[in-house]
Design the sequence.
């Protein structure tokens, strides 16, 4: 799965997610990626999220919308991401990752799997990582 | 207001031999998205461009690096959401489309619906001039080898679900 979130100079946010699914999946199986609020969501009120990980778990906790709910309740984008992924692990034993951006330009790349390749571009700075806590 | 693009290339147990390719790919995609913003594009344009770059990179499980289902076919899913208007477009189980994210955006821009699936999504693609591509062009030799290996596993996909090796 791949995904992106962005905020433009007008404070508008957007997200996109795309996937080939899971290897050897049943014909017709659809995971979280194309489901609104699960594989991705964006709202200028709170931010934009793109998700990756175990699709059925992400669907069960509506992960993208859950991250934005925490932001709406006052959490930072990083804390909202951590809490949401922790909730998914606790409730349905699923692992995954998210990239998040707020309308003010705060961003986070958080995951509970072994690795997730991510990159963030802002101004003239490119941030990137693949291992936890990079 | 700062313009920012953040991308991911999938969360899983990425093996060491693929790590550099994955990092290089997400860096290039993030830069692609930011260049769209710098050129006056919207956040929506930027995420589409960034995800297209990732779909075109066979290192990632999307577009040209897609996994195969149990029948050895490609079935792709994608979504795009505009935070300004809450407009959304999505496709699921679409076959042999190189850039499903752009097809998802077309669903958003050209129809009154949110999601098209399967044969309907492919028919819509054809109707707006998005041509399908051969399965072989979307599947890498690495994926063919992995698919062959995993289809002989005693455990099926359901048993592997939620393991570090098997997820989207």
Sequence:
């Amino acid at each position: 799965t791949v995904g992106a979130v962005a905020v433009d100079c007008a404070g508008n946010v957007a997200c996109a997610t795309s996937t080939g699914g899971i290897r050897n999946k049943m014909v017709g199986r659809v995971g979280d990626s194309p489901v609104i609020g699960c594989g991705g969501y964006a709202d200028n009120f709170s931010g934009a999220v793109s998700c990756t990980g175990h699709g059925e778990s992400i669907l069960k906790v509506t992960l993208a919308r859950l991250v934005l709910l925490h932001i709406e309740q006052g959490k930072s984008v990083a804390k909202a991401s951590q809490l949401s992924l922790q909730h998914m692990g606790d409730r349905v034993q699923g692992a995954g990752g998210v990239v998040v951006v707020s309308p003010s330009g705060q961003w986070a790349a958080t995951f509970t799997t072994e690795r997730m390749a991510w990159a963030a571009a802002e101004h003239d700075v490119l941030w990137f990582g693949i291992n936890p806590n990079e | 207001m700062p313009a920012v693009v953040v991308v991911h290339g999938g969360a899983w147990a990425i093996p060491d031999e693929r790590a550099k390719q994955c990092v290089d790919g997400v860096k290039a995609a993030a830069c692609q998205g930011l260049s769209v913003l710098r050129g006056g594009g919207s956040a929506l344009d930027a995420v589409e461009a960034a995800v297209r770059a990732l779909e075109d990179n066979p290192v990632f499980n999307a577009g040209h690096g897609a996994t195969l289902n149990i029948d050895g076919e490609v079935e792709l899913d994608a979504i795009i959401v505009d935070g300004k208007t809450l407009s959304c477009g999505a496709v699921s189980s679409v076959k042999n489309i190189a850039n499903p994210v752009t097809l998802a955006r077309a669903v958003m821009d050209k129809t009154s619906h949110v999601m098209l699936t399967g044969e309907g999504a492919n028919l819509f693609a054809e109707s707006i001039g998005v041509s399908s591509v051969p399965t072989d062009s979307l599947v890498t030799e690495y994926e063919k080898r992995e698919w062959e290996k995993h289809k002989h596993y005693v455990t099926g996909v359901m048993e592997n679900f939620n393991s570090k090796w098997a997820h989207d």
Notes: Chain A touches chain B through 84 residues (CB under 8 Å). The first strand of chain A starts at residue 2 and ends at 7. The CA atoms of residues 105 and 124 of chain A lie 14 Å apart. The mean pLDDT of chain A is 96.
